[in-house]
Design brief:
The protein is mainly α. The chain is built from nine helices and no strands. It has helices spanning 2-44, 56-62, 71-82, 107-110, 114-120, 135-158, 166-176, 178-184, 193-203. 32% of the residues are buried.
């Protein structure tokens, strides 16, 4: 009898604990679904038909690092920098070995300087090397760099040290440097930044679904 009462008490305590944890479990489940929905929306809004297959998943991932730089923006930047043709990278699988690149070749895929690539790149494709000629490594480095610039621009705007559209100033900082944005308190003048930003923005609709471009 005492054993049965002990089992009943343990069962009741377990049931009460489960009821207490149920709202937390439900909350975590809902939060997770929202994050997944957000990632899905980014992917659904991105037209992959004009992107070389070796780049598609990396552009989507790079465009998910922060809210400012979407996959269509990353794609437009790559189109602007290389037209998807540098080093015949469009036909290179990130799983395939790529010859060692010289420092100047870090611009081949995404336009990053050797120093910027070295700072922001990782072995994202998991092939045991960090190469500026691997789509995975290069595109993810671009995404991280862009988002770091976006964060820097946002801080400048919060301090009222710069004025303008966040994405436009992020692209300008990519072209001219964050210091140039700070010196000009906005869009840098006279160094081609405005033209670069305009060129990238014109290409963004090309990589958005339903744009008809």
């Amino acid at each position: 009898m005492a054993g049965d009462l002990r089992k009943l008490a343990l069962w009741s305590a377990g049931g009460a604990l489960a009821l207490c944890l149920l709202p937390l479990v439900m909350m975590v489940g809902v939060s997770g679904s929202k994050l997944n929905d957000g990632d899905d929306q980014r992917q659904q809004a991105f037209d992959t038909s004009k992107v070389p297959p070796a780049y598609v998943k990396w552009v989507i991932r790079a465009g998910s690092v922060c809210d400012v730089v979407l996959p269509s923006v990353v794609a437009a930047q790559l189109d602007t920098e290389t037209g998807w043709s540098a080093g015949s990278a469009g036909s290179v699988s990130s799983a395939e070995p790529v010859p060692d690149a010289s420092p100047t070749e870090s611009r081949a895929l995404v336009g990053l300087t050797p120093a910027d690539f070295a700072e922001w790149a990782s072995d994202d494709d998991g092939n045991g090397r960090i190469s500026p000629l691997d789509p995975g490594d290069a595109v993810m480095a671009l995404g991280r760099f862009d988002c770091a610039l976006a964060d820097g621009v946002e801080r400048l705007k919060e301090k009222q040290s710069a004025e303008g559209d966040l994405l436009e100033l992020t692209l300008a900082a990519y072209h001219s440097g964050l210091d140039a944005v700070q010196r000009q308190r906005g869009m840098p003048a006279g160094d081609g930044a405005r033209e670069y930003v305009s060129g990238v923005q014109k290409l963004i609709p090309r990589y958005q679904t339903g744009s008809g471009s």
